Q: What sequence folds into this?
C-alpha cells in the first residue's frame, strides 16, 4: 500500500489534508523566519531601515521611522548657527497630543503654548550649531504625521509609524 | 477594551505559531522546549499587561482567554472539520512492523522516538514487535503491540 494513501484503521486518516497542513506548516516557518530577518533590518524599529532624516533649513531632525508603543525613541533636532542667543523649537500639535515626552536634553529655558503646538525655548551660544534631543514614546498606534520648525522657519515634516 | 483586543490577538497569534511549529512542540518536549515555553509566556505577558497591573486588567485577560478557549472547544464539537484545523489529525507511522519512513520524515519524527515510546509504554524492544505506532494529534506517539506470534522470533543478541 502506498505510504501516503489514507488508512482507515486503527485511525481514520486524511492524507490530503495532512499534506496540505504540512505545506502550510512550511509556509509558516518561512513567515516566522522572514519576520525575524525583517526585525534585523529595522522594519519593526531600531535598525538601518528605521533611521529617518528630514530637514527644512535651519532645522534638521533625525528620528526613528518605525517605533513601538511604550518604547521610548529619540528625536534629534539640529539647528544651523544663527546670530540669536535663543533657540525656539516649535513642535506641531500632533506631537504634543500623541507623544509622551520622557526627557528633553538640554532642558528648555521656558515653554510657550499656542493653537498649533508648543514652543520650547532654549538658551544657546550665538553662531553655534545647536542640538536638542527629545526622548518620547507615542500613545497612538499607526501612522503619525509630525512637524517641527525652528526659529520661525519652515516646518520640517516627518512621519513615524508606531506598532502596537 | 484594549486588554480584550490584545488578549485576542495574542491568543490567535500564539495558536498560529504553535500550530505551524508542528506537533513535536508539545508531544516530545525536552527541557529546552520547556524553557522556551516559559520565555514565550514571559514575552507575551508583558505585551498584554503593559504597565497596567490592576486586578481588573488581570481578570479581563483571564476572562478573554478562557472564553476563547471554551468557544474553540465548542466549535470543535460542532464542526469536526474545525477540529482538524485546530488540532491536526492522528497519523500512522508504523504499520505491521514497518516504519513509514516518508511519513515520519515529513512529520519530523525519528525511528528512535517511536522505539522510545514502544519501550516506555509496552516494554517493546524492536520495531517488528509493533503492530501500529500512531502519531496522535497531541504530538504523543501511541503504540499497538503486535501479538507475540506475529513478531519475528529474533531475540536479543546473546553475549
A:
Amino acid at each position: 500500500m502506498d505510504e501516503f494513501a489514507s488508512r482507515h484503521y486503527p485511525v481514520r486518516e486524511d492524507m490530503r489534508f495532512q499534506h496540505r497542513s504540512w505545506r502550510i506548516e512550511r509556509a509558516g516557518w518561512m513567515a516566522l523566519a522572514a519576520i525575524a530577518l525583517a526585525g534585523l533590518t529595522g522594519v519593526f524599529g531600531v535598525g538601518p531601515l528605521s533611521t529617518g532624516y528630514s530637514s527644512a533649513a535651519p532645522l534638521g531632525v533625525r528620528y526613528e521611522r518605525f517605533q513601538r508603543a511604550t518604547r521610548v525613541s529619540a528625536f534629534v533636532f539640529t539647528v544651523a548657527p544663527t546670530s540669536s542667543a535663543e533657540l525656539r523649537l516649535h513642535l506641531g500639535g500632533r506631537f504634543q497630543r500623541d507623544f509622551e515626552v520622557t526627557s528633553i536634553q538640554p532642558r528648555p529655558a521656558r515653554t510657550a503654548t499656542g493653537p498649533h503646538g508648543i514652543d520650547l525655548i532654549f538658551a544657546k551660544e550665538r553662531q553655534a550649531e545647536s542640538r536638542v534631543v527629545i526622548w518620547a514614546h507615542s500613545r497612538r498606534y499607526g501612522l503619525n504625521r509630525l512637524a517641527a520648525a525652528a526659529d520661525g522657519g519652515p516646518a520640517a515634516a516627518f512621519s513615524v509609524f508606531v506598532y502596537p | 477594551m484594549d486588554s480584550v483586543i490584545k488578549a485576542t490577538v495574542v491568543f490567535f497569534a500564539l495558536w498560529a505559531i504553535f500550530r505551524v511549529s508542528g506537533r513535536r512542540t508539545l508531544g516530545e518536549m525536552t527541557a529546552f522546549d520547556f524553557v522556551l515555553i516559559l520565555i514565550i509566556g514571559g514575552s507575551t505577558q508583558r505585551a498584554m499587561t503593559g504597565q497596567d497591573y490592576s486586578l481588573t486588567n488581570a481578570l479581563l485577560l483571564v476572562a478573554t482567554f478562557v472564553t476563547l478557549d471554551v468557544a474553540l472547544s465548542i466549535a470543535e464539537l460542532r464542526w469536526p472539520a474545525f477540529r482538524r484545523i485546530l488540532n491536526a489529525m492522528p497519523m500512522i507511522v508504523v504499520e505491521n512492523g514497518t516504519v513509514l519512513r516518508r511519513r515520519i520524515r515529513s512529520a519530523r519524527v525519528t525511528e528512535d522516538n517511536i522505539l522510545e515510546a514502544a519501550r516506555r509504554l509496552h516494554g517493546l524492544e524492536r520495531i517488528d514487535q509493533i503492530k501500529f505506532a500512531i502519531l496522535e494529534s497531541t504530538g504523543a506517539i501511541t503504540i499497538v503491540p503486535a501479538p507475540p506470534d506475529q513478531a519475528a522470533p529474533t531475540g536479543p543478541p546473546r553475549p
About this structure: Chain B has two domains: 2-87, 91-145. The interface with chain A takes residues 6, 16-17, 19-22, 50-51, 84, 88-92, 95, 100-103, 106-107, 132, 134, 144 of chain B (CB under 8 Å). Residues 55-78 of chain B form the longest helix (24 residues).
